[in-house]
Specification:
Keywords: Membrane, Transmembrane, Transmembrane helix. By secondary structure, the chain is an all-alpha fold. It has one domain.
């Protein structure tokens, strides 16, 4: 499924009327764009380079929160890829 399909599942006629927080979080995680993932990975690498040079605890907390968000987003991308692998494979013709 692509990003538009995930959006249709959330807003289409078959969408649940009152989705739970976990349901919304799961679909939100699966609908993150690859551009956002690349941006977060780049930001995390840059912050890792800076974080290794400073000793200020407040900045290290900010960096660790961003690193945690990046790991969660990467797990969402892996989950999306794993979900694609179960269905019919698209073949170029």
């Amino acid at each position: 499924m692509d990003l538009l399909t995930y959006k249709a599942l959330d807003t289409g006629p078959g969408a649940p009327q009152h989705p739970s927080l976990a349901h919304r979080a799961w679909h939100g995680l699966l609908s993150i764009t690859p551009t956002a993932v690349v941006f977060l990975v780049g930001l995390s690498l840059g912050l890792g380079a800076v974080g290794a040079q400073i000793t200020s605890i407040p900045w290290l907390i900010v960096f660790s929160v961003i690193w945690g968000i990046t790991l969660i987003v990467l797990m969402g991308m892996v989950a999306r890829w794993a979900k694609h692998a179960r269905g019919a494979q698209r073949l170029a013709t």
